Amino acid sequence: MIIWRKAPDYLNPENALFRREGTPPEQVFAEGFRPGGDEFGLDHHVMLGQVGRSAFVSFSLGVENPLLQRPDERAATVVRDSRSWVKVEYLYQVFHPNGLHVDATWHERGLPPLPAEQRGQLLIPGGVPGALVKEAIPLLLAYRLDEYGYLYLHSKTFKDTIPNEAFAPDEVEWVGSTGAQK
User: Which intervals hold domain Pierisin-like (predicted)?
Assistant: First the structure.
């Protein structure tokens, strides 16, 4: 059984979804978030980590998990020296009414609890158009090498929010009762 979130009041702030990645806002606002493939198997996405093949785009139901996730390897490096560097990533706030609730579905299937970093996920099949991305918050992530050569996150700095001027949830066309966008 699949547990599906259907939030008719999805534009309320408490229903916001979050995603952190290195793709710049201009691109996300224009193109939205697209899946890496066409595989609809939940196990492929969640347990095998094969998100490159997944037909889902993953979002978090809260802001905590995206802030704790590992760095996006595609993020731009803006400053670098021999022992430290700064990368730019973005925390995106998205409003979408529907999606597959991973925790509830996993529990309903009788499977053991997910690792902490995978909890609170909502998977949206087919992706999310840019018109549903409200804003991006730039994060400057400073990494350093310790005396043993191990990389660690030294600091996180939030910069000013970048609003999506094309945020227009009322203009997205929905198909049927599932809430899928055209």
Answer: 17-138
**Exposure string for 87-108, b = 16+ CB within 10 A, e = fewer:** bbbbbbbbbbbbbbbbbebbee
For domain 4-78+87-137+158-181, the CATH class is: alpha beta
Per DSSP, what are the bridge partners of residue 87?
A: 77, 141
Assess whether pLDDT exceeds 80 at residue 40: yes
Which of 55-69, 90-104, 166-180 comes out lowest in average pLDDT?
A: 166-180
The whole model's pTM is what? 0.87
**Distance between CA atoms of residues 102 and 100, nearest Å:** 6
The answer to whether the CB of 145 falls within 8 A of the CB of 83 is yes
Q: Report the pLDDT value the prediction gives residue 34, as an integer from 0 to 100.
A: 93
3-state secondary structure of 138: strand
Closest CA to 123 of 31, 33, 48: 33
Most confident of 7-21, 71-85, 124-138: 124-138
C-alpha dihedral over 141, 12, 29, 55, to 10 degrees? 90
Q: Which residues of 59-83 are buried (b: 16+ CB within 10 A; e: fewer)?
A: bbbebebbeeeebbeebeeeeeeee
Give the other-Cβ count within 10 Å of 154's Cβ: 14
